Amino acid sequence: MGKTLTYKILDEHKVSEDLENNTMSIIIDQTLTQDATGTMAYLEFLSFGIDKVRTKLSVSYVDHNTLQNGFMNADDHKFLQTVADKYGIIYSKAGNGICHQVNLERFAVPGRTILGSDSHTPTSSGVGAIAIGAGGLDVACAMAGKPFTIVKPKVVGVKLIGTLRDGVSAKDIIIHLLGILTVKGGVNKVIEYYGEGVKTLGVPERATICNMGAELGATSSVFPSDERTYEFLKLQKRESDFIPLSRDEDSEYDENITIDLNTLKPCASCPNSPDNVKNVDELKDIKVDQVLIGSCTNSSYYDFVKVASILKGKKIHKDVSLGIAPGSQQVLQMITKNGILDILLSAGARILESACGPCIGMGQSPATDAVSLRTFNRNFYGRSGTNSAKVYLVSPEVAALSAINGYISNPLGCKVDDEFSLNVDYPKCDSLLYMPTFESEVIMGPNIKPIPHFSPIGNHIEAKTMISLEDNITTDHIMPAGAKVLPYRSNIEKISEFVFSNIDADFSNRCLSNGNGVIVAKQNYGQGSSREHAAIAPRYLGIKAVIAQSFARIHKKNLINFGILPIELAIDADLLDEITIDWNEKEIKVINVTKNKTYVTENNLTEQDLFLINKGGLLNTF
């Protein structure tokens, strides 16, 4: 039997395999970081004491925290730039663009493995790579030349047949798939696309699908490297990077899904979860207050060609605020040169910086109770900066037409204007990319604090339940982002004050007052962003274990990396219930002393996981 494309690439990079625990370790070719997670990743890297990165390529991007509100962000950017220069890392300065868009344009290569300290790293899989999101400490280890260990993923084959109709986009494909699989349906799986319909999608469209595949909880997503990949790389003047890659015809998938592009309809992810999917027709006439087009999901030149085709000669509704954020300096130059920018401005759009911006809560928070349509990938509660806002995730076509009409509108039949050619010159933008010289000395501002040292939790834990939670708790719930919080990302003591602050303002004070604590949750705890602060900050507050029915992949790994015991178990616990945990390599016993209930489960952690927890975390092993 032949191989899937997923395992062609993974097996090529495999350095070891653990059959008993169903894991494999792979060598990583490339890494990427961004500034919200990168400061911690590089502090961890510095603690290893090595002289330079060991990867084929590593890039440090500044795209999240570009608001200069106080000295903290600027200081962190100087830290990132000097670390990059000294240790052999390419540095992408603020203004160059969103890490995933720039990485796709300039650095992603078919057949490579890419590890990034951002959950949307799989964007680069649109060119036929295996790109994986991870916590910063795992990325730091990869930069040090260490293999990366994953559960051997099941491969879901998504067969695309037919052709998208005018007004239906790649965003509708992935939103539709989220409606099928849900936000936990891709955990420890790779979503592999194949079929005749794949050839109808260019790399920017494939990248959109791979990007939002992170919302499935998937390890990665992947498209073949074919003639469409070559076209894209040639436009980027990187055709020498092309190699053809595809599945063997006789390969078999663990799961199979078929999507008929001919019949697909424009759809939306409704508040407050990407898998709360409805067809746009079901939402018609909902009044819209804000429209934002951009993010790492939909900020390519192709996306703005479609937006301009709809906005040309029109004006946005008087009650709508329309914000546009090109994904990179390259995209901004292209839409400026060919007149698209003028069309957007004439329609009434506000042009935002080429950065993550509103997607991470950096500006453009909606009004109270407002309806905001966004071409982004996440609409978790509070992520926009306005807890009462109703955020819908849609395609650029739905966003543009709705901005004109003032209500959610179906763009079926809207065509790309013949005025805009896709085969235009793609400028090579290097003005904000800096190659390392190995000459800088690392500069740390006063807000950059040492990583806290954590002692092992021990095999007998007496604690209290600090919070009891429902299904699908995200890392945005645990460790909010936004302009108020993210400037403290390199100061764990300060940022810990904000843990669970959007749903329980007293959480951090209660933890500090009570000492040892546990968190209790239901299914898919820790979905969403890769931010390891959602593990480090609770650990700083005294959290020793998280008891949940199931965990999201990246967050479970982050908990283990910082010495917190993840326990897969359904228990009944209320706030401040007394909890006792006794555990070893085979069994975990949890006693709710307050309710006089005992729960016993098999310990399903690997030997390596147990080793790290017993050491107090990965950093204690160096």
Give a short account of the largest sheet. 7 strands, mixed
Cα radius of gyration in angstroms: 23 Å
Strand content: 15-25%
| Total number of helices | 18
Q: Please report the distance between the alpha carbons of the first and last residues.
A: 42 Å
What is the global morphology? globular
* Lateral strand order in the biggest sheet: 24-23-22-21-25-26-27
Strand element count: 27
- Uncertain segments are none
The residue fraction in helices comes out at: 25-40%
Q: Secondary structure elements and their pairing?
A:
Blueprint: H1 5-13, E1 14-18, E2 23-26, E3 30-34, H2 35-46, E4 57-61, H3 72-87, E5 90-92, H4 99-106, E6 113-116, E7 130-133, H5 136-143, E8 148-151, E9 154-161, H6 170-181, E10 189-194, H7 203-212, E11 220-222, H8 227-235, E12 255-260, E13 267-269, E14 277-279, E15 290-293, H9 301-311, E16 321-324, H10 329-337, H11 340-347, E17 350-351, E18 371-374, E19 390-393, H12 396-405, E20 433-434, E21 460-468, H13 475-478, H14 492-495, H15 507-514, E22 517-520, H16 533-540, E23 543-548, H17 553-561, E24 565-568, E25 578-583, E26 587-592, E27 597-602, H18 607-615
Parallel strand pairs: 3-4, 3-6, 4-5, 6-7, 9-10, 9-12, 10-11, 15-16, 15-18, 16-17, 18-19, 21-22, 22-23, 23-24
Antiparallel strand pairs: 1-2, 2-8, 5-20, 13-14, 21-25, 25-26, 26-27
Helix pairs in contact: 2-3, 2-5, 6-7, 9-11, 9-12
